[in-house]
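Hello K.,

You asked for the raw outputs rather than the summary table, so here they are, unedited. I folded two proteins back to back in the same session to keep the settings identical. This is the first:
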Amino acid sequence: MHVYRWGAIAVVAAIFGVTTSALASPPMLAKAKENGYPAQNCQYCHVSKLPKKDAFTPEDLNERGKWMAAEKNKQKAKAADVESLKTFPGGKEQK
């Protein structure tokens, strides 16, 4: 089952051309959706619809994305944790 999920995510990412997103990834977007957050696309945390890793700057993040990046740095993690969204202080959404 797990292999099929990753395969499906890879296909969707290839179709939408988001395989090189900055700081985030298609699996993070999928996880946010699975956890009930109203994330519809990359703009949930980024300014642009299709952020590119090779052209990324911190200004490419919206308020939520900047907050998640700061949390990642505080935790000294390699990637932002979608679970941290539950403590995002600005504009709390209903799950």
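The second followed immediately with the same parameters:
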Amino acid sequence: MFLEMLGNATLHNGILRVEARIRGGDGKDQVVGHLVIPAQNAVQVTQQLATIITELKKRIDEQNAGKGSDKPVQ
């Protein structure tokens, strides 16, 4: 699933639903799907995603440092 941002989140019957959004060609945000996570797993999933992103940022920073670029990745 391709997403550029997250939208509204709801919790119902133990299921967390978070909108996945993109910016459309008309410049308006559009819902393209939902992340659907059992509420009991939401913290674990969030922590895992944060770990993955942190590791990815380290790798990108290392690559940029090797190229002589001091521009930070955001």
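The radius of gyration is 16 Å.

Happy to rerun anything if the numbers look odd on your end.

Regards,
P.
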